[in-house]
């Protein structure tokens, strides 16, 4: 009888260790996915001042747009935590999109090699950010699901705040609007 009890306790301990290790592994994957986003966001934040400085001379009448871009960039750099960074980066993405739309209205500016190169790099970076966000959301969803299902949620409860769910990137209202393409010249 003692061996049966010991056997059950050993199996239970192994199961508990397996669940704990699985949760730690998933949490590390989510953190890695966030790090990949952070790398691309840093790249975008580094490109913005160069683009703004290249554009400033041409866009004297769009100073308000440039100021909003730089303010949003500063806010994004100083944001702490995943949730705050997501909000700040979404705001930056919105004002950056407006800047790129304004640039389209200045033919001389569009023809400038430096501006074209910076816009191309920003577009490439935005594509990388989109892919990294998708990967992060997939990883975070898998982790969030794992910590909420039974009996994992009971085990998560034993470890207090070590396993908290991650917020997801969601489409903002501004991003939901369908772009208006006009090919009538």
From TrEMBL:
Pfam families linked: LemA (PF04011)
Keyword Nucleus: yes or no?
no
Give the record's GO CC terms: membrane
Keyword Membrane tagged: yes
Give the signal peptide range.
Answer: none
Membrane-topology annotation of the record = Single-pass membrane protein
Q: What keywords were assigned to this record?
A: Membrane, Transmembrane, Transmembrane helix
Q: Where in the cell is it found?
A: Membrane
Family statement: Belongs to the LemA family.
* Entry protein name: LemA family protein
- Specify the species: Mesotoga infera
């Amino acid at each position: 009888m003692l061996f049966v009890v010991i056997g059950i306790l050993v199996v239970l301990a192994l199961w508990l260790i397996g669940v704990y290790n699985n949760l730690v592994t998933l949490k590390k994957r989510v953190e890695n996915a966030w790090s990949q986003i952070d790398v691309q966001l840093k790249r975008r934040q580094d490109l913005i001042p160069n683009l703004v400085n290249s554009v400033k001379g041409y866009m004297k009448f769009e100073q308000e747009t440039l100021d909003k871009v730089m303010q949003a960039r500063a806010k994004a750099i100083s944001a702490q935590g995943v949730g705050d960074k997501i909000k700040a980066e979404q705001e930056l993405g919105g004002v950056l999109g407006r800047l790129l739309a304004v640039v389209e209205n200045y033919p001389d500016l569009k023809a400038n090699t430096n501006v074209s190169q910076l816009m191309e790099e920003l577009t490439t970076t935005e594509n990388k950010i989109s892919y990294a966000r998708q990967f992060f959301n997939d990883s975070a969803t898998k982790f969030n699901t794992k910590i909420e299902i039974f009996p994992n949620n009971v085990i998560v409860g034993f470890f207090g705040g070590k396993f908290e769910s991650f917020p997801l990137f969601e489409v903002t209202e501004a991003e939901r609007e369908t772009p208006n393409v006009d090919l009538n010249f």
